[in-house]
């Protein structure tokens, strides 16, 4: 497997970025058994709807697979579903949240009590369930936003990280009823924080961008930290864009609460023992470059001022506003890492449960220990 | 809704209790809980309802009125929720097996997530055949049959709640001797009846010393010291300022609670946070004795500064300092919020629990729908 | 044990000690007294009130057997507090005690003069008059005999209330000066020189030091600050008043606690200068601490590991300040430094007399708890420790007249100042 590129729009970014960032552009036809059904294509198509998160998209894709499936028994069905899930996993570089959705759906299918004798009836029932759930799941963000509202006081200063739809919805809801101000981190290298900044400012919320390296500086003035999540794992910990762990540690040192917002389909049965126990971790991450490569200009270890490469890294870097003015200033001599260097950096990290104060989910407000209760109920036995 | 006469009767009983709560004439969380249970018992016995939802609505509206009267007294709401939980449980046991009443549970993915794997469908058990009367809901001919059939069971359930409340002190102190050892020095603050019963019960078996911090400005510590020493427990009364100084010799800190919140934290008498922090700094265990009726399924109370009850500032700075009175702001909060990390164990009438499992206790004792009355 | 027997025991023990030591110097006597406190306390022959006698009996360690008559069960926890000792009532004095000292002793035991600085200044002033009235006996030199003359005066004061570290340091300095007096100097000149030295000490180490601290700490106070302070420290009061007269706009939160409730005095002073103040009692502190920008505390003395020995309750204020990330600043003159290392509030402490401080103000029960405790209820004890020890980890900075220092560097100060002792 080649070095995974900075791809996988799991935050739903499209268009401008897809040209700059090379996605696995060529989608080969997957000959799976006797169908021309391409689950990955379906998945990508579903993801084009910005509202749908990756686990949901996975569930919908698998639902469609189910629909097209010609399996005759439960056993074959589950096998097909597993196969489809495998395809999705191998095609995406960061598959944790996708995994969560797949496992949830497959577990549900396996445990679905089937009284009806007709298999096709069962299938239609399952398909219906899947689609119904997806519809319901779109209301979860609103539910979570309401729960979080109770914890936001007037004149709160909130710190958030990168781009998360559920956090944005919570903040927008809070803004309607209370006065809040928000700090957003840039979240390099993809710079999704800028997107959050734009959305919040457009809604009239006083918002300021913070360098990832300035989080400790700003932490004493913040009331609490609010982040979204890619997955919430069995230990009660959080998997989110890289930088969340840092923020949680600083928040703990400054005695500030750290809240995570996660819809229930992001609960995942994984138990990472450390950062290096994550499925996204591979030996190339943060490895030292081999000396043989030093000569080749394209992969220099030193940060270089290459306008072409700097521009290529991501349009987000160019749009990066300076901390003080908040305007979009393109600084001509901005030094940045090469894309190859960036690819050696992790894209997600794991936050330990003792750093998290509470997890807000559509099933309620949970302490990190409470998360495992749900997971055991779903998957044990 | 029920008839007007019934409403009137309900309202009178409820109003009496609500005004007592508002005027803080009901002192002590246990008393508040007992009074609430008695009122609920009256309400249920006189209530007329033809299906379970009506009954739940009635109780909920009563609960709402009482909680509004005194929002800081959380045990009122807790008792209402507990009664509702018991009622629903009794109702489900009663209608189980009756074909007419079983609703087919829709099994969907969202339910799968929140409730886990599907439970096996209940086949009518032979026990249900003994039941001669079947509960018919919403029966147009005899609207009271449902109520009549259910009421005896409900009364029993409410009586259970009342019994539990009355035996709180005994149950909490049951294992007191396992928690306190000979020659230990125990620190407590203010006057909590639960802690008092706990310490007195341990004194039957062990010889130990108690340091009581007097907890200004209510100085309730004096009462506690007097009561403990009259039971021949060797007691030291100290001012709050010396808690840190003495902490290095203290083996355990035992505190009482006003309400236990869903995250494992608690509201307790002013000064508890100081004692718990000082204990934490010395790695001394902090033990909280509280009845289960103090478990509150609310989370965000501690964010509101107003959740702390404030009392009369003249006990802090009296009028004899006349010239200061209008120049100086005086603050006198009655409660503190103590974080869950500072508490090691909650000793309740239902066993000992660490703060991290409080949310689970709450899930078991109350229904999710009742969090907001 | 009857009073006579107790007196005998006391004389016997004193004789033992006297023969064991040669030329007992005054400071070691208080130390020895502290060590023998257990036995002495019970051996007290008090012509005073029977109540006091009962108190001392209760303060006794069971070791000397004096309290053996009481229930062994009751005396269970008392042993760990026994070394605190209660202030002993004024004994019948051996030898002449100067009237100024008598008056001072009375003021100390009645807690009319409190606070490390106040007590030190009062003591030194009283010593000045003692020195002036002193006449060297024939065949003796001033430098040798004056000290022995002062010793009983000092022990009289210690009997009234245990010596503060400031007094100890000052007296040690005084002794140094006395022994360094030129033998050939005429008596009056020597006495004048000593009085001058005492004045200089007060001026340099206390008054001027305070001014420097006012300026230094004042720089840390900015407009809009909310300063939190505990009880009443003379230094902190000066700092606040100075900052206010410099025109800075800030408000003060005064936290107070029993038994002494000294914060009310500070409150009066501050509000008479129209500084906006808030007043609350110690247990209510957590609800207000998030509003504070700085915490200013005074100290009774500073140990060489940076631990602060100060009024009981200071440790809790500092601990909470650290938890809520509010900087904790201690204002302390260098003459308050003590070479010992403090570990916890037990190694050195003092109990306030019960009869002065047991009745809480505005108490609802008219009956004082005192009578309940001593007469009716042998199981109830009242303890009022006056001091506690704040560990250096809770303190952000110490402001002295030589600058702002981190607490862990205290021990290097004397070296830096070129002195071999404080």
UniProtKB/TrEMBL annotation, chain A:
UniProt-recorded Gene Ontology molecular function terms: guanyl-nucleotide exchange factor activity; translation initiation factor activity
One Pfam match: IF-2B
InterPro entries (UniProt xref): eIF2B_alpha/beta/delta, elF-2B_alpha_N, IF-2B-related, IF_2B-like_C, NagB/RpiA_transferase-like
Location in or out of the cell: Cytoplasm, Cytosol
Keyword entries, A-Z: Cytoplasm, Initiation factor, Protein biosynthesis
GO cellular component: cytosol; eukaryotic translation initiation factor 2B complex
Subunit structure: Component of the translation initiation factor 2B (eIF2B) complex which is a heterodecamer of two sets of five different subunits: alpha, beta, gamma, delta and epsilon. Subunits alpha, beta and delta comprise a regulatory subcomplex and subunits epsilon and gamma comprise a catalytic subcomplex. Within the complex, the hexameric regulatory complex resides at the center, with the two heterodimeric catalytic subcomplexes bound on opposite sides.
Similarity comment: family membership: Belongs to the eIF-2B alpha/beta/delta subunits family.
Protein name in the entry: Translation initiation factor eIF2B subunit alpha
Automatic annotation (TrEMBL), chain B:
Region (Disordered): 113-146
Gene3D superfamilies linked to this entry: Translation initiation factor eif-2b, domain 2
GO molecular function, one term: guanyl-nucleotide exchange factor activity
This protein's GO CC annotations: cytosol; eukaryotic translation initiation factor 2B complex
Pfam annotation, one family: IF-2B
Composition-biased stretches (Basic and acidic residues): 127-138
UniProt-annotated location(s): Cytoplasm, Cytosol
Keyword Protein biosynthesis in annotation: yes
Subunit structure: Component of the translation initiation factor 2B (eIF2B) complex which is a heterodecamer of two sets of five different subunits: alpha, beta, gamma, delta and epsilon. Subunits alpha, beta and delta comprise a regulatory subcomplex and subunits epsilon and gamma comprise a catalytic subcomplex. Within the complex, the hexameric regulatory complex resides at the center, with the two heterodimeric catalytic subcomplexes bound on opposite sides.
Similarity comment: Belongs to the eIF-2B alpha/beta/delta subunits family.
Entry-linked PANTHER family: TRANSLATION INITIATION FACTOR EIF-2B SUBUNIT BETA (PTHR45859)
Protein name per the record: Translation initiation factor eIF2B subunit beta
Species assigned in the record: Jaapia argillacea MUCL 33604
Lineage: Eukaryota, Fungi, Dikarya, Basidiomycota, Agaricomycotina
UniProtKB/TrEMBL annotation, chain C:
Keyword vocabulary terms for this entry: Cytoplasm, Initiation factor, Protein biosynthesis
Region feature (Disordered): 1-71
Principal cellular location given in the protein's record: cytoplasm
Pfam families: IF-2B
Biased composition (Basic and acidic residues): 1-19
Annotated compartments: Cytoplasm, Cytosol
SUPFAM superfamilies in alphabetical order: NagB/RpiA/CoA transferase-like
Listed GO CC annotations: cytosol
Single GO MF descriptor: translation initiation factor activity
Protein family according to the UniProt entry: Belongs to the eIF-2B alpha/beta/delta subunits family.
The protein's assembly and partners: Component of the translation initiation factor 2B (eIF2B) complex which is a heterodecamer of two sets of five different subunits: alpha, beta, gamma, delta and epsilon. Subunits alpha, beta and delta comprise a regulatory subcomplex and subunits epsilon and gamma comprise a catalytic subcomplex. Within the complex, the hexameric regulatory complex resides at the center, with the two heterodimeric catalytic subcomplexes bound on opposite sides.
Name of this chain's protein: Translation initiation factor eIF2B subunit delta
Organism from which the protein derives: Jaapia argillacea MUCL 33604
């Amino acid at each position: 497997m080649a070095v995974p590129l900075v791809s996988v729009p799991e935050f739903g970014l499209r268009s401008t970025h897809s040209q700059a960032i090379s996605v696995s552009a060529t989608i080969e036809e997957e000959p799976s058994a006797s169908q021309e059904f391409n689950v990955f294509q379906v998945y990508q198509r579903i993801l084009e709807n910005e509202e749908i998160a990756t686990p949901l998209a996975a569930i919908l894709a698998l639902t469609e697979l189910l629909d097209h499936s010609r399996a005759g028994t439960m056993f074959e069905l589950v096998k097909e579903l597993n196969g489809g899930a495998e395809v999705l996993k191998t095609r995406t570089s960061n598959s944790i949240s996708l995994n969560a959705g797949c496992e949830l759906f497959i577990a549900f299918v396996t445990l679905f009590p089937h009284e009806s004798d007709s298999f096709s009836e069962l299938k239609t029932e399952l398909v219906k369930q899947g689609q119904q759930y997806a519809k319901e799941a779109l209301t979860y963000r609103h539910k979570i936003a309401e729960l979080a509202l109770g914890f936001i006081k007037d004149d709160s200063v909130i710190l958030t990280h990168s781009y998360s739809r559920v956090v944005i919805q919570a903040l927008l809801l809070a803004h309607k009823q209370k006065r809040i101000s928000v700090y957003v981190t840039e979240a390099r290298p993809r710079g999704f924080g800028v997107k959050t900044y734009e959305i919040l400012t457009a809604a009239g919320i006083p918002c300021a961008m913070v360098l990832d390296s300035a989080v400790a500086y700003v932490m004493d003035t913040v009331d609490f930290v609010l982040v979204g999540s890619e997955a919430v794992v069995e230990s009660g910990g959080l998997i989110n864009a890289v930088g969340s762990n840092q923020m949680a540690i600083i928040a703990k040192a400054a005695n500030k609460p750290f809240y995570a917002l996660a819809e229930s389909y992001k609960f995942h049965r994984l138990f990472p023992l450390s950062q290096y126990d994550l499925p996204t971790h591979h030996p190339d991450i943060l490895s030292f470059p081999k000396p043989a490569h030093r000569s080749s200009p394209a992969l220099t270890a030193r940060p270089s001022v290459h306008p072409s490469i700097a521009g290529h890294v991501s349009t987000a870097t160019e749009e990066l506003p300076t901390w003080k003015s908040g305007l979009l200033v393109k600084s001509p001599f901005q030094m940045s890492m090469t894309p190859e260097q960036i690819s050696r950096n992790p894209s997600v990290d794991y936050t330990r449960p003792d750093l998290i104060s509470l997890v807000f989910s559509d099933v309620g407000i949970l302490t990190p220990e409470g998360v495992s209760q749900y997971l055991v109920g779903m998957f044990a036995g | 809704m029920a008839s007007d006469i019934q409403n009137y009767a309900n309202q009178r009983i409820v109003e009496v209790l609500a005004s007592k709560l508002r005027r803080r004439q009901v002192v002590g969380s246990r008393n508040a809980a007992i009074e609430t249970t008695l009122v609920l018992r009256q309400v249920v016995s006189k209530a007329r309802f033809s299906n379970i939802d009506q009954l739940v609505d009635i109780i909920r509206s009563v609960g709402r009125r009482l909680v509004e009267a005194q929002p800081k007294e959380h045990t009122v709401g807790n008792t209402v929720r507990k009664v509702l939980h018991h009622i629903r449980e009794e109702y489900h046991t009663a209608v189980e097996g009756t074909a007419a009443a079983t609703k087919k549970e829709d099994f969907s993915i969202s339910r799968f997530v929140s409730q886990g794997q599907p439970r096996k469908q209940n086949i009518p058990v032979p026990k249900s055949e003994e039941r001669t009367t079947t509960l018919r809901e919403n029966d147009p001919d005899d609207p009271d049959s449902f109520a009549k059939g259910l009421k005896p069971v409900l009364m029993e359930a409410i009586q259970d709640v009342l019994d539990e409340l009355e035996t709180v002190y005994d149950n909490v102190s049951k294992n007191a001797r396992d928690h306190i050892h000979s020659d230990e020095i125990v620190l407590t603050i203010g006057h909590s009846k639960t802690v008092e019963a706990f310490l007195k019960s341990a004194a039957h078996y062990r010889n130990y010393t108690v340091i009581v911090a007097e907890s200004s400005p209510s100085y309730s510590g004096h009462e506690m010291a007097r009561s403990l020493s009259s039971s021949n427990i060797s007691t030291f009364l100290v001012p709050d300022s010396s808690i840190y100084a003495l902490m290095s010799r203290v083996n355990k800190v035992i505190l009482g609670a006003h309400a236990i919140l869903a995250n494992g934290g608690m509201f307790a008498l002013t000064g508890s946070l100081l004692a718990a922090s000082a204990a934490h700094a010395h790695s001394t265990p902090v033990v909280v004795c509280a009845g289960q009726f103090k478990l509150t399924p609310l989370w965000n109370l501690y964010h509101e500064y107003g959740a702390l009850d404030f009392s009369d500032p003249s006990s802090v700075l009296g009028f004899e300092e006349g010239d200061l009175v209008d120049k100086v702001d005086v603050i006198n909060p009655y409660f503190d919020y103590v974080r869950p990390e500072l508490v090691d164990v909650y000793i309740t009438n239902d066993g000992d629990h660490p703060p991290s499992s409080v949310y689970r206790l709450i899930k078991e004792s109350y229904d999710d729908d009742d969090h907001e009355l | 044990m009857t009073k006579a027997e107790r007196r005998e025991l006391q004389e016997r023990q004193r004789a033992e000690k006297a023969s064991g030591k040669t030329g007992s110097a005054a400071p070691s006597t208080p130390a020895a007294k502290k060590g023998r406190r257990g036995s002495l306390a019970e051996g007290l022959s008090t012509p005073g009130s029977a109540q006091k006698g009962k108190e001392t009996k209760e303060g006794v360690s069971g070791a000397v057997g004096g309290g053996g008559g009481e229930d062994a069960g009751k005396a269970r926890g008392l042993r760990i507090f026994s070394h605190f000792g209660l202030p002993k009532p004024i004994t019948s004095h051996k030898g002449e005690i100067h009237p100024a000292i008598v008056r001072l002793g009375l003021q100390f035991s009645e807690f009319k003069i409190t606070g490390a600085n106040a007590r030190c200044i009062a003591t030194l002033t009283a010593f000045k008059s003692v020195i002036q009235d002193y006449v060297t006996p024939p065949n003796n030199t001033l430098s040798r005999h004056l000290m022995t003359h002062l010793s009983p005066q000092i022990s009289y004061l210690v009997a009234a209330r245990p010596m503060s570290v400031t007094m100890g340091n000052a007296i040690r300095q005084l002794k140094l000066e006395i022994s360094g007096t030129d033998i050939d100097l005429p008596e009056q000149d020597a006495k004048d020189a000593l009085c001058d030295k005492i004045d200089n000490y007060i001026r340099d180490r206390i008054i001027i030091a305070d001014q420097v601290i006012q300026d230094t700490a004042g720089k840390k106070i900015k407009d809009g600050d909310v300063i939190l302070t505990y009880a009443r420290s003379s230094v902190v009061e000066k700092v606040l008043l100075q900052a206010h007269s410099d025109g800075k706009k800030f408000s003060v939160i005064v936290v107070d606690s029993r038994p002494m409730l000294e914060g009310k005095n500070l409150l009066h002073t501050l509000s008479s200068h129209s500084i906006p103040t808030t007043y609350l009692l110690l247990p209510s502190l957590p609800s207000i601490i998030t509003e504070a920008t700085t915490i200013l505390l005074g100290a009774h003395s500073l140990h060489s590991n940076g631990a602060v020995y100060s009024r009981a309750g200071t440790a809790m204020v500092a601990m909470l300040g650290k938890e809520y990330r509010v900087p904790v600043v201690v204002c302390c003159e260098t003459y308050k430094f003590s070479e010992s290392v403090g570990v916890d509030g037990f190694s050195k402490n003092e109990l306030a007399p019960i009869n002065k401080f047991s009745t809480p103000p505005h108490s609802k029960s008219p009956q004082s708890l005192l009578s309940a405790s001593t007469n009716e209820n042998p199981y109830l004890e009242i303890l009022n420790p006056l001091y506690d020890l704040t560990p250096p980890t809770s303190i952000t900075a110490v402001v002295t007249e030589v600058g702002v220092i981190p607490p862990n560097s205290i021990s290097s100060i004397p070296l830096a100042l070129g002195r071999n002792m404080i």
